Structure formats: structure tokens, C-alpha cells
Amino acid sequence: MNILSVASEVFPLIKTGGLADVAGALPIALAGHGMHMRTLMPGYPAVMQRLAKTEVVATFEDLLGEPARILAATHEGIDILVLDAPGFFDRQGGPYTDATGKDFVDNWRRFAALSLAGAEIARGLIPGWQPDIVHAHDWQAAMTAVYMRYTGLQHIPTVVTVHNLAFQGQFGPEIFAGLDLPPEAFSVEGLEYYGDVGFLKGGLRTAWSITTVSPTYAHEIMTPEYGMGLEGLINARAGELVGIVNGIDTAVWNPETDPHIARSFAAGSLKKRAMNRKALVERFNLIEDDGPIFCVVSRLTWQKGIDIIAEVADWIVERGGKLAVLGAGDQGLEGALLAAASRHRGHVGIVIGYNEPLSHLMQAGSDAILIPSRFEPCGLTQLYGLRYGCIPIVARTGGLADTVIDANEAALSARVATGFQFTPINAEGLRQALRRVFKAWHEPKVWARIQNQGMKSDVSWENSAARYADLYSSLLSRV
After folding, report:
1. What backbone torsions phi and psi does residue 473 show, to the nearest 5 degrees?
2. Are residues 368 and 431 in the same domain?
3. Deepest in the core among 18, 27, 276, 376, taking most CB within 10 A?
4. Residue 233 main-chain phi, psi, to 5 deg
5. Do 427 and 467 belong together in one domain?
6. Domain-located, residue 260
7. Are residues 119 and 228 in the same domain?
8. Residues 286 and 238 in one domain
């Protein structure tokens, strides 16, 4: 089975979030199920620099106003198709924002072009290769399903995966004329969304199947609280909605072989984690004592509950805990955490920015990871924590609820607990969970048991890839 994946970022070529991890890991996992996935992505400067050998397999004289090429390459086992369109992607900044952090004003055209290229590949643009299924990720690629619906390709099954419904790609109606679509596409059955153009909305309306990145999030987005204005449409398509929890690349995230940590270890050798804790203490200028180290590896935003962490930081320190934070985001939240570090030198350490190797060391050296997200479609950092014996403390929402077994009395008695969940998602809810965490910390056998159970969790892509393979097969059976 040939599958075309369309995504705006793919790890290890470029990454801003979990979407890149999924887009990079799924093709490799699907190969074990007899499926060949090629991934179409934009030719950002960072991507073009990292691909050593490419082959031109198709060209566009005019792709929404710009000349473009499709380049084929292989990178770390991933079959990549790059949309080389310098007018859209050869610019300074990130994938979506300029050097000052502002969205590129032509994002609508950039990612419409990516989607249109995906649709043309589905039509047979590349000699000798045509996909049986097209799988588009988030709003940046969701228009692939729209183009296919309105340009005579509706017979090819399409899947749109929602990684985060909060980001929808909504633009003013004036852009529609530049999308190269027939007039009927600007309708309730297509792109029209309260008078605007909705890229994700259009994808959700036109795709054969919709997936989200956890079963709980699939249920949540059918409600007004989490549906972000799209709950009506999602409920109307409930029969085509599937929640499949993400996995992680267990070769990259493996404490037994990880080159980014101070000392490798396994579930049977947790005492070796002490070297990683020592390295973490030095990196964040913390005082070493017998209290737990809590880490945060996150975008510093309201959605991620970072204001909650800032509110409980003093409380954590008063009870003998320490806090190590890696991330960037809202300046006010960065400031609140920096203020906590200033108040509690040696007990709170902050690194503003993102550093992939450091994130590995934090999972290997911290005792627990705090993830108080107000909503979390899947989340990956809790899966990394499970893998590394860094006990997750998570809000009871989305994929966090699906992947962490709360250390309540029954779960502890049955020896199946892997972390701590809390609700309500506010400072008092987190404090209540932390009281249980400190209690477990002072019972070393209980703490080690939770660590070991977490490290036994299957956080690989194997089960998830099998579910995607089943979904693709079921869609093909309807052709």
C-alpha cells in the first residue's frame, strides 16, 4: 500500500512540536506493516541544507503564483518529498513565523501551495508512483483533502489528523480568490467558516476519515469546552472520527543507548540515574539534597498550564522540592518563572529556549515531570518520562489521561501505577497531586515501583501504527 503523508514539519529535519515527531516516526513504524509512506514537506532552508542528495521528480511552472519543484530524498530511513518553492519557503525565521515571532502574512498561500502539491501528487504527478491513501496533518496540510474533493480526486481516500484543534488556519474571505478552487468550494460543505476561509474546517468536512492523537481528545473535541467552535462539525462526522494515541521513537528515546545523557541505565539499574541527576543539578545550578527534582520541558503558554506551575513554585520549594524548566513562549510566563528562580536560587533553575539534548538529560536526571496542560491532544513528554523513569504528574485531560495510570490506592495495590493525574486543572488541583507525590517520594520502594512500572509501558509506535494500518485498509475497502 502506498501512502502520501503531507506535513509542515518532520523530525529530524525540522521541528516545533509533536507534529514533527509523529510525521517522522509513523512512516518507519508503518513499514513493518507492509506499507510504504512518502512524506511531502516544505523546503525550508534548514531542510534544504540537511538533505545531502536529492532528485527532481516533478516541476510546477506556476504553483499559486510561484515556480516550484518536487525533490525526492531519503533521510534517516524516511522517504521524503520536498516542495522546493523558494518564493514560499526560502526565508529567515521559523516554519510559520518571521525572525520577530510574527506569523508570515502569506501563510495561507504557503500552506495552500503545499496542499495543492499534495493533491497533484495524488493525481499522479510523479512518474511511476501514485498513493492509494493521502494522510494530511493539521491545518497546514488539511487543504489537501479540499483540493482533492474539488478537483476530481474524491475517489482517493483521505485522512486528516488533528494534532491540536486550537490551531485552525482561519483567514479572511478575500484570500479565496487566490486558492485556485472552484466557487462552490467556498460553502458550508467546503471551506466557508462563519464568513471566513477555514483550512482545518475544510479538511474536516472533506476528508474520508478524521483522526486525533488520543481517544480521550477525540471525545473532548466533540464538546463546546474543547471543540474550539468546530464541535458541531465534529459531532456530525462522529462516525468517521478515530482517536489513536501517539507513540515515540524508542530508538531515539532509549535510556540504555542515549548519547545525550551522562550515564545510560535501564529499569533494572535505576541507581545509575544518579549520575544524570548530578549532571542536571550542575547544568541548572541547583543545590543537591535529598528532595525530588521536578522538571518542565514545554512551550511556556497558558494552554500548557505554565501559570499554574509559576503559582505553585514557592510551595514546591517550601516542601523541599526543586524545579528545572526548559522552554520558551509567553513573555509574562517566562518572567514569572525567572522571578521564581531569582527568589529561590539553587532551588529553581530556568533555561529559556529549546535544546533537544538537554531535554534528554532532564528526563534522565529529574525525578518527576510536571505537565499541567489545560488541554493536551496527546502529549509526548509524559511518554519520554515513562521511558526514562521520570514520573509524570499530569492533568487529567486528552492523551495525558490515556497514557498515565494514576497512583491511587487501587493502582498502587495492584502495582500498575505509572504516574499521578490531577483535576481540577488549577493550582490547588496540582498541589493535591503533589502532596501524594511527596508522600510516595518518602517511600523509596513505592517510588521505585512506580518508576519501574512506567518504564515497562509500551510507548512505542507499534500498537498505534497497527491501528493506522487497519484504518487505511478499512478505507481502501470502501473504494
Report:
1. -65, -40
2. yes
3. 376
4. -60, -45
5. no
6. no
7. yes
8. no
Return the SS3 of 74: strand
pLDDT in tens, 188-207: 999 999 999 999 999 999 99
Q: What is the DSSP string of 10-64?
A: -TTT--SSHHHHHHHHHHHHHHTTT-EEEEEEE--HHHHHH----EEEEEEEEET
Cα separations in angstroms, 179 against 64, 100, 182, 185: 7, 27, 9, 10
Using alpha carbons, select from 393, 310, 382 the residue that is nearest to residue 348.
310
CA–CA separation, 348 and 338 (whole Å): 9
**44 and 170 share a domain?**
yes
Determine contact, residues 398/214, Cβ cutoff 8 Å: yes
Helical pair 444-456 and 381-388, crossing angle rounded to 10 deg: 120
Query: pLDDT tens digit string along 139-160?
Result: 999 999 999 999 999 999 999 9
| Angle (CA) 232 234 238, round 5° | 120
Q: How far apart are CA 367 and CA 288, in angstroms?
A: 13
Binning pLDDT at 50, 70 and 90, where does residue 249 land? Answer: confident
Cell numbers found for residue 454: 512506567
pLDDT digits (tens, 9 = 90+) for 123-144: 999 999 999 999 999 999 999 9
Find the CATH number of the domain harbouring 393: 3.40.50.2000
Q: What's the CA gap between 159 and 1, in Å, rounded?
A: 15
For residues 307 and 305, give the distance between their C-alpha atoms in angstroms, rounded to a whole number: 5
Residue 314 Cα distances to 230, 302, 309, 326, 348, angstroms: 39, 19, 9, 18, 9
- The answer to the question of residue 370 being in a domain is yes
> Whole-angstrom Cα distance, residue 394 to residue 392?
6
Cα three-residue angle 356-359-363, rounded to 5 degrees: 145
Q: How many domains does the chain have?
A: 2
Give the residue from 41, 10, 12 showing the smallest Cα distance to 110.
Answer: 41
Describe the chain by its helix, strand, coil percentages, rounded to 5.
40, 20, 40
258 part of a folded domain: no
Residue pair 310/302 in contact (Cβ under 8 Å)? The answer is: no
Both 183 and 329 in one domain: the answer is: no
Q: Are 228 and 273 within one domain?
A: no
Are residues 467 and 450 part of one domain? no
Residue-by-residue DSSP string for 295-306: EEES-BSTTTTH
Distance CA 459, CA 36 (A): 22
- The residue range of the domain holding 222 is 2-247+462-476
In terms of Cβ atoms closer than 10 Å to its own Cβ (0-12, 13-18, 19+), residue 437 is: buried
Has this prediction a pTM greater than 0.70?
Answer: yes
